Amino acid sequence: MRYTFFVILIALLTGCAAPKYNYAPAAIAISEPPINSVNTSQIGDVLLRQGKYKEHDAIYIKSETKAGWAYTIFPGYYLKDGEDESSEYYRPGSGDEAGRVVKAGIADNWQSIMAKKDKPVLCIVTVFNVAACGDESDFERQKKPVVSQDSFQQTLIYSGKVGNKINVSYREMSGNFARPAFNNNVEYDLSDSKTIGYKGAQIEVLEATNQHIKYKVLRNFNAAAQ
Asked: Tell me, what's the pLDDT at 129?
């Protein structure tokens, strides 16, 4: 009974908030370089790239921020989960630039980071839907590419020239993982043809040395089954 009263009292002193989970990141298709473009690449560079990834709304917090007395929000990226009329709701991203939240030992666990729409203020929303807010924070809204389970990428990579033959590597990535069974290294004899192709992709080799290749993009990869 006392604990319930304490939670109600804290809610009255801070604020109530219920996180929203109504956001879906945009799926972005990539196909580069453009068809008919002429490009120069060095050994190890990607010649062609095709695939898809998710572009996620995010905030980047530039400096350590206090939310109430019990929560510290550290610099880094936080990905959007949803929004309502007055606020947006975020969670820490992943990777080296991900943000994190640390709470005091006696504080309630937290479930979301709330960013006000009308002013640069960040709050922590606890598991009891209590919002603990801080002063104005230094953060900015951004779009962040995110690799997801259904992300997919195909690439051709220039691997050099021996005599009149060039070597090209094919690589596939699904999600965060390479697909070794679908990787391959291919040799092409330019005395047979200046046009080379793999899995539907085609380029015209205009110049090739053991340091670089100059080429024209004729086609990118065929759409691959995911």
From this structure: 94
